[in-house]
Amino acid sequence: MTMPALTDLTGTYVLDPVHTRIGFVARHAMITKVRGAFHEFEGTLHLDGSDPAKSRASVSIQADSIDTGNGDRDGHLRTNDFLDAPNHPRITFASTKAEQVDDTHFRLTGDLTIKGTSKSISIDFEFTGAAQDSFGNQRVGFEGAITVSRKDYGLTWNAALEGGGVLVGDKVVLEFDISAIKQV
């Protein structure tokens, strides 16, 4: 696939929630991984193809839209032990810096806020392409991931295991599979 020139992609885009996945992976009982996703979110991306450093992005996620495929676990994740969704209904990211690393890789630095705590993080993204869809919409795609410490955001609940170790790992991989639609 030939990548379009970045200058052709300049504009403001909104995340397509039907074709975007915001997910995570966390270690459970020190032996396996639990995967999940958030199903309710919105986001805006402004791409500046002439000067990628002027690009920016923001995302707002409904914390209570967490889904790991297990209702009891999801209910626990919504409590104060983890996300405290009733008191902190949104997880947000707002970029403060954008860098083009090479032709298809970018780094977004910004503030990630979870459970009322904000930390600056840098997420590496790969530009996966651009296309006009069957409805005439211009789309762009990006994939990225970052590993964060849940303790950095006050998510410290855990349980000791009989054989040693803990029930929930500290490191969580946040995954972003982005499809965004250009606005007129």
From TrEMBL:
<dbReference type="InterPro" id="IPR036761">
    <property type="entry name" value="TTHA0802/YceI-like_sf"/>
</dbReference>
<feature type="domain" description="Lipid/polyisoprenoid-binding YceI-like">
    <location>
        <begin position="12"/>
        <end position="181"/>
    </location>
</feature>
<dbReference type="InterPro" id="IPR007372">
    <property type="entry name" value="Lipid/polyisoprenoid-bd_YceI"/>
</dbReference>
<comment type="similarity">
    <text>Belongs to the UPF0312 family.</text>
</comment>
<protein>
    <submittedName>
        <fullName>Polyisoprenoid-binding protein YceI</fullName>
    </submittedName>
</protein>
<dbReference type="Pfam" id="PF04264">
    <property type="entry name" value="YceI"/>
</dbReference>
